[in-house]
Design a protein that fits this description.
It is a single chain. Helix content is about 50%, strand content about 10%. By secondary structure, it is α/β, with parallel strands linked by helices. Strands 3-2-1-4-5-6-7 form a seven-stranded parallel β-sheet, sandwiched between helices. Helix 9 links the parallel strand 5 and strand 6. The radius of gyration is 22 Å and the shape is globular. This is C-factor-like. One of its GO terms (cellular component) is cytoplasm.
Protein backbone atom coordinates (compact mmCIF):
# COMPACT_ATOMS: atom_id res chain seq x y z
CA UNK A 1 0.00 0.00 0.00
CA UNK A 2 2.84 2.38 0.91
CA UNK A 3 4.55 1.80 -2.42
CA UNK A 4 1.27 2.33 -4.23
CA UNK A 5 0.99 5.79 -2.64
CA UNK A 6 4.59 6.58 -3.56
CA UNK A 7 3.92 5.54 -7.13
CA UNK A 8 0.99 7.92 -7.28
CA UNK A 9 3.21 10.67 -5.87
CA UNK A 10 5.79 9.96 -8.57
CA UNK A 11 3.16 10.18 -11.28
CA UNK A 12 1.82 13.37 -9.75
CA UNK A 13 5.27 14.92 -9.68
CA UNK A 14 5.96 13.97 -13.29
CA UNK A 15 2.57 15.35 -14.33
CA UNK A 16 3.42 18.66 -12.69
CA UNK A 17 6.68 18.88 -14.61
CA UNK A 18 4.83 18.08 -17.85
CA UNK A 19 2.40 20.90 -17.08
CA UNK A 20 5.29 23.30 -16.62
CA UNK A 21 6.80 22.21 -19.94
CA UNK A 22 3.52 22.97 -21.67
CA UNK A 23 3.34 26.41 -20.06
CA UNK A 24 7.00 27.36 -20.36
CA UNK A 25 8.67 28.45 -23.58
CA UNK A 26 11.94 30.17 -24.31
CA UNK A 27 15.60 29.77 -23.37
CA UNK A 28 14.99 27.62 -20.28
CA UNK A 29 12.91 25.05 -22.13
CA UNK A 30 15.89 22.80 -22.84
CA UNK A 31 16.81 22.81 -19.16
CA UNK A 32 13.30 21.79 -18.19
CA UNK A 33 13.29 19.03 -20.78
CA UNK A 34 16.56 17.74 -19.43
CA UNK A 35 15.14 17.81 -15.94
CA UNK A 36 12.07 15.91 -17.08
CA UNK A 37 14.17 13.21 -18.73
CA UNK A 38 16.13 12.76 -15.51
CA UNK A 39 12.95 12.58 -13.46
CA UNK A 40 11.36 10.00 -15.71
CA UNK A 41 14.52 7.93 -15.59
CA UNK A 42 14.59 8.08 -11.82
CA UNK A 43 10.91 7.17 -11.63
CA UNK A 44 11.26 4.17 -13.91
CA UNK A 45 14.51 2.90 -12.38
CA UNK A 46 13.65 3.08 -8.73
CA UNK A 47 10.14 4.27 -8.10
CA UNK A 48 10.12 3.00 -4.53
CA UNK A 49 13.13 5.08 -3.49
CA UNK A 50 12.77 8.17 -5.66
CA UNK A 51 9.06 8.82 -5.78
CA UNK A 52 9.02 11.34 -2.97
CA UNK A 53 11.85 13.33 -4.59
CA UNK A 54 10.08 13.28 -7.92
CA UNK A 55 7.06 14.82 -6.26
CA UNK A 56 9.22 17.53 -4.67
CA UNK A 57 10.88 18.33 -8.01
CA UNK A 58 7.48 18.66 -9.64
CA UNK A 59 6.30 21.06 -6.95
CA UNK A 60 9.54 23.07 -7.23
CA UNK A 61 9.23 23.47 -10.99
CA UNK A 62 5.58 24.45 -10.66
CA UNK A 63 6.48 27.05 -8.03
CA UNK A 64 9.13 28.45 -10.39
CA UNK A 65 6.49 28.98 -13.05
CA UNK A 66 4.05 30.58 -10.60
CA UNK A 67 6.76 32.90 -9.29
CA UNK A 68 7.71 33.99 -12.81
CA UNK A 69 4.09 34.64 -13.67
CA UNK A 70 3.40 36.75 -10.55
CA UNK A 71 6.55 38.84 -10.95
CA UNK A 72 5.91 39.52 -14.61
CA UNK A 73 9.01 37.61 -15.69
CA UNK A 74 7.32 34.87 -17.70
CA UNK A 75 9.94 33.22 -19.85
CA UNK A 76 8.00 33.64 -23.08
CA UNK A 77 7.68 37.37 -22.47
CA UNK A 78 11.39 37.61 -21.66
CA UNK A 79 12.24 35.87 -24.91
CA UNK A 80 10.05 38.11 -27.02
CA UNK A 81 11.10 41.35 -25.37
CA UNK A 82 14.83 40.74 -25.19
CA UNK A 83 15.63 39.01 -28.46
CA UNK A 84 13.02 39.80 -31.06
CA UNK A 85 14.18 40.09 -34.67
CA UNK A 86 12.91 43.51 -35.71
CA UNK A 87 14.58 43.68 -39.12
CA UNK A 88 12.18 44.95 -41.79
CA UNK A 89 13.69 43.64 -45.02
CA UNK A 90 14.99 40.07 -44.79
CA UNK A 91 16.35 37.68 -47.40
CA UNK A 92 16.67 33.94 -46.73
CA UNK A 93 18.27 31.47 -49.11
CA UNK A 94 17.10 27.86 -49.29
CA UNK A 95 13.71 28.95 -47.97
CA UNK A 96 11.59 26.21 -49.55
CA UNK A 97 12.30 23.45 -47.00
CA UNK A 98 13.87 22.55 -43.68
CA UNK A 99 15.31 25.33 -41.55
CA UNK A 100 14.81 27.96 -44.25
CA UNK A 101 11.08 27.31 -44.51
CA UNK A 102 10.68 27.17 -40.73
CA UNK A 103 12.52 30.50 -40.42
CA UNK A 104 10.14 32.12 -42.90
CA UNK A 105 7.17 30.68 -40.98
CA UNK A 106 8.29 32.00 -37.62
CA UNK A 107 9.18 35.42 -38.98
CA UNK A 108 5.67 35.78 -40.40
CA UNK A 109 4.11 34.89 -37.05
CA UNK A 110 5.49 37.79 -35.03
CA UNK A 111 3.98 41.26 -34.93
CA UNK A 112 6.82 43.21 -36.54
CA UNK A 113 5.24 45.90 -38.75
CA UNK A 114 6.37 46.66 -42.32
CA UNK A 115 8.25 43.38 -42.60
CA UNK A 116 9.11 42.02 -46.03
CA UNK A 117 10.68 38.58 -46.46
CA UNK A 118 12.39 37.60 -49.69
CA UNK A 119 12.22 33.82 -49.61
CA UNK A 120 14.61 32.43 -52.20
CA UNK A 121 15.03 28.93 -53.58
CA UNK A 122 16.38 27.11 -56.61
CA UNK A 123 13.03 26.22 -58.19
CA UNK A 124 10.10 28.32 -56.93
CA UNK A 125 7.62 26.58 -59.23
CA UNK A 126 8.76 23.01 -58.54
CA UNK A 127 7.10 20.39 -56.31
CA UNK A 128 9.64 20.86 -53.51
CA UNK A 129 8.55 24.49 -53.13
CA UNK A 130 4.85 23.81 -52.67
CA UNK A 131 4.89 24.46 -48.92
CA UNK A 132 6.60 27.81 -49.48
CA UNK A 133 4.10 28.80 -52.16
CA UNK A 134 1.20 27.97 -49.81
CA UNK A 135 2.79 30.05 -47.06
CA UNK A 136 3.26 32.98 -49.44
CA UNK A 137 -0.43 32.80 -50.41
CA UNK A 138 -1.35 33.23 -46.74
CA UNK A 139 0.98 36.22 -46.35
CA UNK A 140 1.09 37.90 -49.78
CA UNK A 141 2.06 41.30 -48.39
CA UNK A 142 4.95 39.85 -46.36
CA UNK A 143 6.54 37.07 -48.45
CA UNK A 144 7.96 37.40 -51.95
CA UNK A 145 9.41 34.25 -53.51
CA UNK A 146 12.57 34.83 -55.56
CA UNK A 147 14.50 32.37 -57.69
CA UNK A 148 18.08 32.03 -56.46
CA UNK A 149 20.32 29.04 -57.12
CA UNK A 150 23.44 29.28 -54.94
CA UNK A 151 25.27 27.11 -57.49
CA UNK A 152 24.52 29.50 -60.38
CA UNK A 153 26.29 32.91 -60.46
CA UNK A 154 23.85 34.25 -63.09
CA UNK A 155 20.89 33.30 -60.92
CA UNK A 156 22.43 35.11 -57.94
CA UNK A 157 23.02 38.27 -59.97
CA UNK A 158 19.49 38.26 -61.40
CA UNK A 159 17.95 37.72 -57.96
CA UNK A 160 19.85 40.73 -56.60
CA UNK A 161 18.50 42.92 -59.41
CA UNK A 162 14.94 41.76 -58.74
CA UNK A 163 15.18 42.23 -54.98
CA UNK A 164 16.88 45.62 -55.44
CA UNK A 165 13.98 46.87 -57.55
CA UNK A 166 11.58 45.93 -54.73
CA UNK A 167 13.64 47.32 -51.85
CA UNK A 168 13.68 50.91 -53.07
CA UNK A 169 15.71 53.20 -50.83
CA UNK A 170 15.33 51.18 -47.64
CA UNK A 171 18.03 48.61 -48.26
CA UNK A 172 18.33 45.06 -46.94
CA UNK A 173 18.54 44.65 -43.17
CA UNK A 174 19.17 40.93 -42.83
CA UNK A 175 20.72 38.39 -45.20
CA UNK A 176 20.54 34.76 -44.06
CA UNK A 177 22.81 32.43 -46.04
CA UNK A 178 21.00 29.19 -45.29
CA UNK A 179 21.16 27.23 -48.57
CA UNK A 180 23.59 24.33 -48.56
CA UNK A 181 24.13 20.73 -49.62
CA UNK A 182 25.62 17.62 -47.98
CA UNK A 183 27.80 14.98 -49.58
CA UNK A 184 28.97 11.87 -47.76
CA UNK A 185 32.48 10.53 -48.18
CA UNK A 186 35.97 10.03 -46.81
CA UNK A 187 39.44 10.55 -48.26
CA UNK A 188 39.10 7.19 -49.98
CA UNK A 189 35.55 7.54 -51.24
CA UNK A 190 34.99 11.26 -51.97
CA UNK A 191 34.96 12.18 -55.65
CA UNK A 192 36.22 15.36 -57.27
CA UNK A 193 32.64 16.03 -58.35
CA UNK A 194 31.37 15.84 -54.76
CA UNK A 195 34.07 18.27 -53.62
CA UNK A 196 33.32 20.72 -56.45
CA UNK A 197 29.55 20.66 -55.93
CA UNK A 198 29.70 21.17 -52.15
CA UNK A 199 32.31 23.91 -52.46
CA UNK A 200 30.38 25.71 -55.20
CA UNK A 201 27.12 25.68 -53.23
CA UNK A 202 28.43 26.07 -49.68
CA UNK A 203 31.28 28.54 -50.23
CA UNK A 204 31.32 30.22 -53.65
CA UNK A 205 27.54 30.66 -53.63
CA UNK A 206 27.42 32.54 -50.29
CA UNK A 207 30.46 34.60 -51.35
CA UNK A 208 28.70 35.79 -54.50
CA UNK A 209 25.45 36.35 -52.63
CA UNK A 210 27.18 38.60 -50.09
CA UNK A 211 28.94 40.41 -52.94
CA UNK A 212 25.76 41.05 -54.96
CA UNK A 213 23.64 42.08 -51.99
CA UNK A 214 26.30 44.17 -50.26
CA UNK A 215 25.12 47.49 -51.78
CA UNK A 216 21.66 46.94 -50.28
CA UNK A 217 23.13 46.06 -46.88
CA UNK A 218 25.25 49.21 -47.02
CA UNK A 219 22.16 51.25 -47.84
CA UNK A 220 20.33 49.82 -44.83
CA UNK A 221 23.29 50.45 -42.52
CA UNK A 222 23.49 54.11 -43.60
CA UNK A 223 19.71 54.59 -43.45
CA UNK A 224 19.46 53.36 -39.87
CA UNK A 225 21.11 56.46 -38.45
CA UNK A 226 22.22 54.53 -35.37
CA UNK A 227 25.77 53.57 -34.34
CA UNK A 228 26.97 50.04 -33.65
CA UNK A 229 25.86 46.74 -35.15
CA UNK A 230 22.71 44.64 -34.93
CA UNK A 231 20.63 42.26 -37.03
CA UNK A 232 17.91 44.89 -37.18
CA UNK A 233 20.26 47.40 -38.80
CA UNK A 234 22.29 45.39 -41.35
CA UNK A 235 23.64 41.87 -40.92
CA UNK A 236 24.85 38.75 -42.70
CA UNK A 237 24.05 35.51 -40.85
CA UNK A 238 25.80 32.46 -42.26
CA UNK A 239 24.09 29.22 -41.21
CA UNK A 240 27.08 27.00 -40.60
CA UNK A 241 27.63 23.75 -38.70
CA UNK A 242 29.70 22.07 -36.04
CA UNK A 243 31.05 20.03 -38.94
CA UNK A 244 33.00 23.09 -40.04
CA UNK A 245 34.83 23.36 -36.71
CA UNK A 246 38.37 22.04 -37.14
CA UNK A 247 38.84 21.64 -33.40
CA UNK A 248 35.57 19.76 -32.84
CA UNK A 249 34.87 17.67 -35.94
CA UNK A 250 37.78 15.16 -35.73
CA UNK A 251 36.23 13.44 -32.70
CA UNK A 252 32.90 13.15 -34.57
CA UNK A 253 34.32 12.06 -37.93
CA UNK A 254 33.76 8.32 -37.48
CA UNK A 255 30.12 8.93 -36.64
CA UNK A 256 29.66 11.48 -39.45
CA UNK A 257 31.90 10.63 -42.45
CA UNK A 258 30.92 13.66 -44.55
CA UNK A 259 34.31 14.96 -45.64
CA UNK A 260 33.15 17.09 -48.63
CA UNK A 261 30.55 18.80 -46.48
CA UNK A 262 32.92 19.45 -43.57
CA UNK A 263 35.70 20.80 -45.78
CA UNK A 264 33.28 23.16 -47.53
CA UNK A 265 31.81 24.37 -44.24
CA UNK A 266 35.28 25.04 -42.84
CA UNK A 267 35.80 27.23 -45.90
CA UNK A 268 32.41 28.82 -45.25
CA UNK A 269 33.55 29.66 -41.72
CA UNK A 270 36.69 31.33 -43.06
CA UNK A 271 34.50 33.27 -45.49
CA UNK A 272 32.51 34.46 -42.47
CA UNK A 273 35.61 35.62 -40.58
CA UNK A 274 37.06 37.51 -43.55
CA UNK A 275 33.67 38.98 -44.51
CA UNK A 276 33.33 40.27 -40.97
CA UNK A 277 36.72 41.94 -41.27
CA UNK A 278 35.76 43.57 -44.56
CA UNK A 279 32.25 44.64 -43.54
CA UNK A 280 33.36 46.16 -40.23
CA UNK A 281 33.85 49.61 -41.74
CA UNK A 282 30.24 49.67 -42.96
CA UNK A 283 28.94 48.52 -39.56
CA UNK A 284 27.38 45.43 -41.13
CA UNK A 285 27.30 42.60 -38.60
CA UNK A 286 28.53 39.23 -39.85
CA UNK A 287 28.70 35.92 -37.99
CA UNK A 288 28.29 32.14 -38.29
CA UNK A 289 25.44 30.30 -36.59
CA UNK A 290 25.17 26.55 -35.91
CA UNK A 291 21.51 25.39 -35.80
CA UNK A 292 22.25 22.15 -33.97
CA UNK A 293 21.68 18.66 -35.33
CA UNK A 294 18.16 19.08 -36.65
CA UNK A 295 15.60 16.59 -37.90
CA UNK A 296 15.38 17.82 -41.51
CA UNK A 297 15.94 16.26 -44.91
CA UNK A 298 19.63 17.08 -44.51
CA UNK A 299 19.90 16.22 -40.82
CA UNK A 300 18.04 12.93 -41.02
CA UNK A 301 15.53 11.23 -38.74
CA UNK A 302 18.06 10.39 -36.04
CA UNK A 303 18.65 14.06 -35.24
CA UNK A 304 17.44 14.98 -31.72
CA UNK A 305 16.30 18.52 -32.49
CA UNK A 306 13.09 19.63 -34.21
CA UNK A 307 13.17 22.49 -36.74
CA UNK A 308 10.81 24.60 -34.65
CA UNK A 309 13.03 24.51 -31.57
CA UNK A 310 16.20 25.13 -33.56
CA UNK A 311 14.77 28.14 -35.40
CA UNK A 312 13.27 29.58 -32.23
CA UNK A 313 16.72 29.47 -30.68
CA UNK A 314 18.46 30.92 -33.73
CA UNK A 315 16.01 33.81 -33.96
CA UNK A 316 16.60 34.59 -30.27
CA UNK A 317 20.34 34.64 -30.92
CA UNK A 318 20.01 36.72 -34.08
CA UNK A 319 17.76 39.22 -32.34
CA UNK A 320 20.23 39.70 -29.49
CA UNK A 321 23.41 40.13 -31.57
CA UNK A 322 25.63 43.20 -31.16
CA UNK A 323 29.10 44.17 -32.35
CA UNK A 324 30.45 41.89 -29.59
CA UNK A 325 29.44 38.84 -31.64
CA UNK A 326 30.70 40.30 -34.94
CA UNK A 327 32.88 37.69 -36.63
CA UNK A 328 31.84 35.06 -34.10
CA UNK A 329 30.63 31.45 -34.27
CA UNK A 330 27.64 30.63 -32.04
CA UNK A 331 25.09 27.85 -31.82
CA UNK A 332 21.30 28.15 -31.57
CA UNK A 333 21.48 28.50 -27.77
CA UNK A 334 23.97 31.38 -27.94
CA UNK A 335 26.98 29.31 -26.87
CA UNK A 336 30.30 30.02 -28.57
CA UNK A 337 31.69 27.26 -30.80
CA UNK A 338 35.46 26.91 -31.29
CA UNK A 339 36.66 27.38 -34.85
Amino acid sequence: MRYCILSLEALYGTALVLAVLIMQRGPRLSLLRGGLRSLLYATGRSMKQNAYYVMLWGVAFTWLHIQNSFTGRHIEADCQNMAAVKACNILITGANRGLGLETVKQLTEDSCPKRHIFATCRDPDGPRSEALRELAKKHPSVITIIRLDANDPCSIKESAKEVGSLLGNNGLNLLVNNAGIVANGTIQTSSAEDMKNTFNTNVIGPLLIIKEYLPYLQTAAKASGTPGMSSNKAAVINISTLGGSMSTMPSLYKQFPVLPYCVSKAGFNMLTVLSAEELKADEILCMALHPGWVKTEMGGEKAPLESKESVEGMLRVIGSLTEKQHGGFLDYTGETIPW
